[in-house]
Amino acid sequence: MTDRICVAQIGAAHGIRGEVRLRSFTQDPMAITAYGPLESEDGTQRFEIEALRPAKDHFVARLAGVPDRDAAEKLTNIKLYVSRDRLPPIEDDGTFYHADLIGLAAVTPDGAALGTVTAIHNFGAGDLVEIKPAGGGEAMMVPFTDAAVPEIDVAAGRIVVVPLTSTE
Description:
Strand order of the largest sheet: 4-3-7-1-2-6-5
Number of helices: 1
Number of strands: 13
CATH topology of the largest domain: Elongation Factor Tu (Ef-tu), domain 3
Strand content: 35-45%
CATH superfamily of the largest domain: RimM
CATH architecture of the largest domain: Beta Barrel
Order of helices and strands: EEEEEEHEEEEEEE
Oligomer: single chain
Largest sheet: 7 strands, antiparallel
Shape: elongated
Structural class: mainly beta
């Protein structure tokens, strides 16, 4: 398990006063403000959210030390991390951090190896699990739903994936 968790990503600049669009990856999206300073992936930059308000499909955030649009534009696509110990403990067996899934083996219901989980994506229509095949080749994307991923066993280091069937 990783000691840092990605909790948000800065999007494009919003307006001329240094605000940015922000996508929160937390279960309660507004909780992003409760975790204290956020860090860039490489740990070289720290960000404090001074204000956060909901917008259509994202948040608009004012970050300390970002005075104008030019400064905000330089932050586009920075992923924001916090130390795992600053996050609430996981109490439900069916709940986990996406970071805990990276590196798990992906197998079919009968145990055949599919590959390794390399990422969890959300392009707006729900989460997708990216799986890199064991023998190489193009990664497969699987909807992160109970039907497509019926079992997640972090302790055993695997997820069960029901492969999509072709209708051709």
